[in-house]
Amino acid sequence: MVLRAQNNLVALEVQAAVGTEETITPADDAFSVENARMTFDPQITQTNEGSGSLDRSAPIIGGMKAGINFDVIGRASGTAGTPPPYGDALVCCAMSEIITATAVPASPEALAAGGSQVMAVLGASASTTAQIYRGMPLDLTGAVQDLVTIWDYDTSKNAKITKDVGASLIATTSYQVLPNVLYRPASTSLKVCTIHFWRDGRKFRLKDCKGTVSTTFTAAGVLRLSFQFRGVLVADPEDEAVPSVTITNATTPIWKGGLSRLDGKIIKVNTLTLNDGITLADPDNPENNEGFDPPEATAREWGGQIDPSATLVATRNALAEVRAGGTHNMAALLGSTAGNRIACTVPAAQFTGYEEPDREGIVVDQTPYRATGADSGAFLCFF
Questions:
Q1: Is residue 210 a contact partner of residue 231, using CB atoms and an 8 Å limit?
Q2: In 3-state terms, what secondary structure has residue 238?
Q3: What is the pLDDT of residues 153-176, one digit of tens each?
Q4: Which of these, 379, 37, 11, 380, lies nearest to 193 by C-alpha position?
Q5: For the chain, which terminal residue's Cβ has fewer other Cβ atoms within 10 angstroms, N or C?
Q6: Nearest to 349, CA basis, from 325, 333, 332, 365
Q7: For 183-202, what is each residue's pLDDT tens digit?
Q8: Distance in angstroms (rounded) separating the CA atoms of residues 294 and 292
Q9: pLDDT bucket at 292, cuts 50 / 70 / 90
Q10: Which contiguous run of DSSP H or E holds residue 147?
Q11: Distance of alpha carbon 281 from alpha carbon 298, whole angstroms
């Protein structure tokens, strides 16, 4: 008998407490993944004991670190204000989940005076809490009709947006912050999860998992999220049939007719990548079954790369941006249907390098970047 890789299922659930494996209900906790695979890292001690020959003695096998990697095609839930099927996976990558179930305000409301082409002053119904809407979608109707994201918001209700809308945003335009689920970086109260992985009759169980996530937006294509989790192997694999579940996905949004912006201006990229750069460490504990405690996130360094088609310097001088060392807001948005739109907002990207390769004969300004800011490097929003 052989085991077929395609016949697999991943189910994940946030744990109520570290150390206690959560009960997994496949019908509720499974979601669509690609390229799922377990990872193992046995701690090996190679001895140098004399053996009366040139051959080294056998290594000594110690504790085992284990994890699972998988990819997800970016889809929302289909219902605005409801988390995507893989929302728990994002939460366990050192992120917090903020659900805005209803629009703010409930009906479109006129903007206040004082706006510009890249900044709107929200009306009476908006909150005065700084950054409360950061990373969220702002729907504009009336004189200016557009859908943008907010990259900065202050106590005076000034909402800086990720697109130059071409006209001043004043009272002739109305606004709503749309219902959404926002994932933003967190540094405290970090969640862990239990993951079960079935592969054609064999089952692995992990608990106390924490992970990292990277995303790739591709022009005329899909968003892909790549997760890498590390946790505690509950037991050796066991034989268990892959559960029979029905996974229903919302329509996959395509990155076309959406948003691709840098400092409010269009950037014609092929790909926009973003990774959280989380460092995971396994604290030593000789009393633990494997000699380690569950993994801990010890540092984070958001970053990625864009590859827009090059322009004349009068339009954009990418090398000068690198030299200046300043920061730039960026945004990507795909999908056109309420409940199945996804946006990524980077408030403060600092470019760290520059190359000019070509893509199909077209010169490209390839620029890696760091997404800077404490607990504000990047925001993923589903709406």
A1: yes
A2: strand
A3: 999 999 999 999 999 999 999 999
A4: 11
A5: N
A6: 325
A7: 999 999 999 999 999 999 99
A8: 7
A9: very high
A10: strand 146-153
A11: 7
Task: State whether the Cα torsion 86-87-92-94 is positive or negative.
Answer: positive
pLDDT of 380 higher than 90: yes
Tokens of 233: 């192997």
Which two three-digit tokens encode residue 360? 């199909």
Structure tokens at 336: 């056109």
Share of the chain above pLDDT 90, in %: 97
Rounded-to-integer distance, Cα 30 and Cα 115, Å: 45
DSSP 152-188: EE-TT-EEEESB--SS---TTEEEEE--EEEEEE-SS
Q: In the 8-state DSSP scheme, what is residue 126?
A: S
Q: Give 51's pLDDT tier (boundaries 50, 70, 90).
A: confident
Helix (H) or strand (E) holding 90: helix 87-91
Tokens representing 156? Answer: 């005076």
Two structure tokens written together for 84: 């995507």
- Residue 160 has phi, psi (to 5 degrees) of -80, 130
Q: Which of 190, 148, 211, 218 is nearest to 18 (CA)?
A: 190
Alpha-carbon gap, residue 152 to 160, rounded angstroms: 5
**What is the mean pLDDT of the segment spanning 102-126?**
98
* pLDDT (0 to 100) of residue 168: 98
Angle at CA of residue 179, ends 98 and 224, nearest 5°:
70
Of 3-17, 42-56, 288-302, least confident by mean pLDDT is 42-56
221: Cβ contacts below 8 Å, ≥ 6 apart: 254, 255
Provide the pairing of β-strand 158-161 with 30-31.
Answer: unpaired
Per-residue pLDDT, 192: 98
Amino acid at 129: T
β-bridge mates for residue 126, sequence order: none
The dihedral built from the CA positions of residue 215, 217, 221 and 223, taken in this order, carries a sign that is: positive
Give the span between the Cα atoms of 11 and 16, in whole angstroms: 16
Q: What dihedral do alpha carbons 275, 37, 247, 255 form, nearest 10°?
A: 30
